[in-house]
Amino acid sequence: MSWTDVADLLGLVCLFLGALLCLAASIGLLRFPDLLTRMHAGTKPQVLGVLLVILGVGLRTRSGLDVGMLLLIALFQLLTIPAGAHMVGRAGFRTGQVAPADIHLGRRHRRPEA
Amino acid sequence: MTAAGRRVSLPGVLWLTLVWVLLWGSFSPLTIVGGLVVAVLILLAFPLPRVTIALRPRPWPLAVLVLRFLLDVVVSSFHVAWLAVRPGPPVRGVVLDIELAGDDELLQTMTAEMVALVPGTVVIDLDPGERLLTLHALGVTTPRQAQQVRWRVLGQEARVLRALHPDPAGQLDPRRGRDEGTVDE
């Protein structure tokens, strides 16, 4: 087995795991009961799934500029997915679709109402 | 320097040109010149708000931050994936808010972005003035579990502050919040 075979095999394993995680994310989107629990499914397994797919594709192509493009995709995924989930969650929170905070931790003082 | 000159910064132009070239996937005079033109146009058309960046990166805490974050992403992904496919009733969660220790808005934002990807939490809202982070915790039902979430978030923030803030000890001093509370009254 040469190094390219090893890289191909690792790439295939990454692609497979990434696809499984994306599948789990979509099952979570269907099964979870409300907006905020669905945001969990849409952010975490989704991010790692996409990162693993990108890693798998990178291991199988191995050309400099393509790897650069893949790194760019990974970077923007990591930057935009939390921000997007935050926007959706906040919109639901502020329009009253979600119950207000039921556990307050560490708010030691409230500012006087001005 | 004119206002337009301040907006079009050299690092910004170079970064956007690099992105453009990578997206085309080829180094050629056409993509490089095209990238420069597009970069300047973007910087002129969409000026960024001026952010005062007072960060001091430290190599070792930064490495701890990045490695721990990658580990957390892996753990939380498999955790949520398991919660999604396991048999039984669907999982629920609670909304809780947590007071952060640091007041640098950029670092608060970084903390919030990272908290959104680590186990069990999605960020809903961040109030920089009050240093109040509102988040949703998955699979939390008891106050004790909520406390554990709080320690995890504060630990994440401490790693961000230690890696990048000029004065992490001052920000993380537990007495700081109380002193400010009396000033507010």
UniProtKB/TrEMBL annotation, chain A:
The UniProt record lists the keyword Transmembrane helix: yes
Keyword Membrane: yes
A Pfam family recorded for this sequence: PhaG_MnhG_YufB
Transmembrane domains' residue ranges: 6-30, 67-85
Keywords: Membrane, Transmembrane, Transmembrane helix
Molecular function GO labels: sodium:proton antiporter activity
NCBIfam families in UniProt: CPA3_mnhG_phaG, PRK12674.1-2
Family note: Belongs to the CPA3 antiporters (TC 2.A.63) subunit G family.
Protein name as it appears in the record: Multisubunit sodium/proton antiporter, MrpG subunit
Lineage summary: Bacteria, Bacillati, Actinomycetota, Actinomycetes, Micrococcales
From TrEMBL, chain B:
Biased composition annotated in UniProt, kind: Basic and acidic residues: 173-185
Coiled coil: none
GO MF: monoatomic cation transmembrane transporter activity
Listed transmembrane segments: 7-24, 30-48, 60-85
GO terms under cellular component: plasma membrane
Compartments it resides in: Cell membrane
UniProt keyword terms in alphabetical order: Cell membrane, Membrane, Transmembrane, Transmembrane helix
InterPro entries per record: Cation_antiport_E (IPR002758)
Main subcellular location of this protein, as a coarse class: membrane
Region (Disordered): 165-185
One Pfam family here: MNHE
Bilayer topology term: Multi-pass membrane protein
Stated family: Belongs to the CPA3 antiporters (TC 2.A.63) subunit E family.
Entry protein name: Multisubunit sodium/proton antiporter, MrpE subunit
Lineage: Bacteria, Bacillati, Actinomycetota, Actinomycetes, Micrococcales
